[in-house]
Protein: Neuropeptide
Organism: Nezara viridula
Amino acid sequence: MYPLVILSALSLAALVHSHDYYPCEPCKGEECYVQPEGCKYGIAKDACGRWQCMAGPGQRCGG
């Protein structure tokens, strides 16, 4: 029973701290609509809500 309590407490702590994982704030206002130009593979929104060029075959995502 005791290990279950510890595991539950650690899981809750990890969940609370995971909210601060993203190093950016969501976009606000006009910056949400600015789209990059010249993207060979199209555009997509990142985790922060900003538009970015999509990666193509053999390219690293999220970098």
About this structure: The chain is about 25% helix and 10% strand.
